[in-house]
Give the backbone structure.
Amino acid sequence: MAPNPSRVVGLFAKRPVPGQVKTRLAADTSPEWAAAVASAFLLDTLDRLAAIDARRVLAYAPDGAGDFFAEPAAGRFVLVAQGAGDLGRRMANFFGNQFRSGMEAVVLLGTDSPSLPLACVEQAFRELERADLVLGPATDGGYYLVGCARRLPPIFEGVVWSSPHVLAQTVDRLSKPDWRLALLPPWYDVDTLADWWVLRGHLGAMRRAGVDPGLRHTLAVGPPPEKVAE
């Protein structure tokens, strides 16, 4: 069955190279282990989003990593490079390109929330039937999902990315009252070792309750190495 032609689910992902991904997690463990976590999150998120009825797009970084992402995408996602600029500019370019290609509702996620229920993604698309913009607040002060319908909102400039102020600054950018905003339930990102243990506890509780979290790659990651004192 062909995917829904009017909506797009996008995934922003970075090639999981030790020392270049999950740097806060690596600071308390090791660059190699943190990269293994990033790789597991990528694979599990791709597998889970493949169930969404939409045109699926994997926007990768760096620009020369297309060959690396072709195998995990496995034909389920269109591959595009994120391009240059800070996170805001890259997201704005992604949304703009999708709208110029005729898409009506576009939802974008990262790989930092592997346990996010797919119901939140579906809810985002439903919200965009009446709203211009939907945000999924993250418990660290950012957002785990952003979705736009039909036009590009002014939220991708003037934001201090990777800070606890991202969500507040994003909302502040919607100064004109004609921008209709919808919100999803809060969820958590996994950026630090403390976040990792939150995730592991959550997954363990789900399994004990008889719920399959659908994160086989993440569950296969071994325990973090102890940080050696210098």
Summary: The first strand starts at residue 7 and ends at 14.
